[in-house]
């Protein structure tokens, strides 16, 4: 195991990584921007290095500053967390060149999976189902129109460098396809310096189901069940749960095996997530691979009893996975609620401020991952997520009751602060949500009763 690592992130995930380090007897060095000087996680780190001004581009996204901090701190490895540099293949390759262990897959795997059309071809070559569409990239507008007619409308136009819903367009006829093709590639060129797009048949009202995998350096790959992330708004997830209410044992096994087959074909190593769309008929389709630890990893931890960040560190340091696929048993039901400093009544506008009153829930089946404390000012520069509430019960019904109890206990208050806490309580009161019969369209129809 490493003696000392650098945590190249902030907030709750920085604290989560520091905790995993300390559970393993590993020293954790934090980096922070000038806006994060008073961050609680810095006090829990073994050392903390200022890397620049508040803007992410001059601190958490600045590769040379992070590498300089790693050299000064004399660490053996860097954990990137999620967001920021977590899926930046250039950053991973700089780490490789500097002999710093990047805690995640190799730079070439990140690069291959970051190209969605390439990842999809890899999936198909591994026998993993993907949404029918263009074979790879579409060269021009006329090709797009021809291929769309073959596929049949409606179709999705997707940026190959996109993902997570960025650079996507729906087209229902040739006119909207032609204009969408041009717009999507322009948008993708501006956002990712890569205007390449591909086409897919539109899957109506899918569920978003993703499979957690772990892969070690010896070639062992296991899956740890799925997460249903269908409750999201504008591609920002709000609620995630495991297991998915939509899966039975047979479908779970099929999707798990597909995820492992993809990971094997991609030569994946470390923790990763294979994303699928699941249609109303139980057909699943690969969409992308997330080459990082995800925000919602905690629901998988709750039902499997495994510490995923611990496994990231163990795998990166050369250890092998010590259990077999058959040893993975899913116990009970877990649901995560993202508590964001946003105002749902004002279009989810950021609503940061100084926390004057804070009470975080606890008790049986309740986990709260958060870096906030009373007196803390939520900075305006970063993601608005301030806490994650993860509830666990013997079954979904018990988890839902614990969720409502815990959300009622939660207090994050201060001038200007609004949070998603009460929105979650009204979602819990919705019959469709309670039944488990919902899809990615849920938040579009949902309004606070
Ligand atoms: C789709 C789709 C329907 N058909 N692809 C959005 C995020 C990106 N990862 C893939 N996404 C979608 N791709 C086809 N061919 C619908 C979505 C989609 C979606 C997917 C997952 C979770 C939430 C979503 C919300 C709207 C659309």
Task: Report the top-level CATH class of the largest domain.
Answer: Alpha Beta
What structural class do you assign from the helix and strand content? alpha+beta
- For CATH, the homologous superfamily of the largest domain is named as ATP-grasp fold, B domain
Low-confidence stretches: none
Distance between the termini: 52 Å
Number of domains: 3
Which bin fits the share of residues in helices? 25-40%
Per CATH, which architecture of the largest domain?
Answer: 2-Layer Sandwich
How much strand? 25-35%
**How many distinct helices?**
15
Descriptive overview:
This protein is an alpha+beta fold and 449 residues long. Helices cover 34% and strands 27% of the residues. The chain has three domains: 4-103, Rossmann fold (3-Layer(aba) Sandwich); 132-201, ATP-grasp fold, A domain (Dna Ligase, domain 1); 207-444, D-amino Acid Aminotransferase, Chain A, domain 1, CATH 3.30.470.20. The strands form five sheets. An eight-stranded antiparallel sheet has the order 13-12-9-10-11-14-19-18, sandwiched between helices. A five-stranded parallel sheet has the order 3-2-1-4-5. α4 runs antiparallel to α5 (107-114) and α12 packs antiparallel against α13 (421-428). The longest helix has 19 residues, at 174-192. The termini are far apart. The protein binds ligand MV4.
Q: Summarize this, please?
A:
The protein has 449 residues and is an alpha+beta fold.
What layout of secondary structure does this protein have?
Layout: E1 4-7, H1 11-23, E2 27-33, H2 40-44, E3 47-52, H3 63-73, E4 77-79, H4 89-97, E5 101-102, H5 107-114, H6 116-125, H7 141-151, E6 155-163, E7 166-171, H8 174-192, E8 197-201, E9 207-215, E10 221-233, E11 236-242, H9 249-265, E12 270-278, E13 284-290, H10 297-304, H11 308-316, E14 333-340, E15 342-343, E16 349-350, E17 357-359, E18 366-370, E19 385-393, H12 396-409, E20 411-413, H13 421-428, H14 431-435, H15 442-445
Parallel strand pairs: 1-2, 1-4, 2-3, 4-5
Antiparallel strand pairs: 6-7, 6-8, 9-10, 9-12, 10-11, 11-14, 12-13, 14-19, 15-16, 17-20, 18-19
The structure holds ligand MV4.
């Amino acid at each position: 195991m490493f003696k000392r690592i650098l945590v190249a992130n902030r907030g709750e995930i920085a604290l989560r990584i520091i905790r995993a380090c300390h559970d393993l007897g590993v020293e954790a060095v934090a980096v922070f921007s000038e806006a994060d000087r008073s961050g609680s996680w810095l006090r829990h780190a073994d050392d903390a290095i200022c890397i620049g001004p508040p803007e992410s581009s001059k601190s958490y996204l600045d590769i040379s500053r992070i590498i300089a901090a790693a050299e000064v701190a004399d660490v053996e490895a860097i954990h990137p967390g999620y967001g920021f540099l977590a899926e930046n293949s250039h950053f991973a390759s700089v780490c490789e060149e500097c002999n710093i262990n990047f805690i995640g897959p190799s730079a070439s795997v990140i690069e291959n999976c970051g190209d969605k059309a390439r990842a999809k071809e890899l999936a198909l070559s591994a026998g993993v189902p993907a949404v029918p569409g263009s074979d790879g990239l579409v060269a021009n507008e006329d090709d797009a129109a021809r291929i769309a007619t073959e596929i049949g409308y409606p179709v999705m136009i997707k940026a190959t460098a996109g993902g997570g819903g960025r650079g996507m367009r729906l087209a229902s006829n040739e006119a909207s396809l032609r204009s969408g093709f041009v717009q999507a590639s322009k948008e993708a060129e501006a956002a990712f310096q890569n205007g390449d797009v591909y086409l897919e048949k539109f899957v109506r009202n899918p569920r978003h189901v993703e499979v957690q995998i772990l892969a070690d350096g010896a070639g062992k790959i296991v899956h740890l069940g799925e997460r249903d992330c269908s409750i999201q708004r504008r591609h920002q997830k709000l609620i995630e749960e495991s297991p998915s209410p939509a899966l039975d044992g047979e479908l779970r096994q099929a999707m798990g095996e597909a995820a492992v087959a993809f990971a094997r074909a991609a030569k994946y190593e470390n923790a990763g997530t294979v994303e699928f769309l699941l249609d109303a008929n139980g057909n699943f389709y690969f969409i992308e691979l997330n080459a990082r630890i995800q925000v919602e990893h905690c629901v998988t931890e709750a039902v499997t009893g495994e510490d995923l960040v611990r496994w990231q560190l163990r795998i990166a340091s050369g250890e092998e996975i010590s259990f077999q696929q058959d040893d993975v048993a899913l116990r009970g039901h877990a649901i995560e609620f993202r508590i964001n400093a946003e105002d749902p009544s004002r279009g989810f506008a950021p609503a940061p401020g100084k926390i004057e009153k804070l009470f975080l829930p606890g008790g049986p089946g309740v986990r709260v991952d958060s870096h906030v404390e009373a007196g803390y000012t939520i900075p305006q520069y970063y993601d608005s997520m301030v806490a994650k509430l993860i509830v666990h019960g013997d079954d979904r019904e018990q988890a839902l009751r614990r969720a409502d109890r815990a959300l009622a206990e939660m207090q994050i208050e201060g001038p200007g602060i609004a949070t998603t806490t009460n929105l979650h309580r009204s979602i819990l009161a919705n019959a469709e949500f309670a039944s488990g019969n919902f899809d990615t369209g849920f938040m579009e129809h949902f309004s606070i009763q």
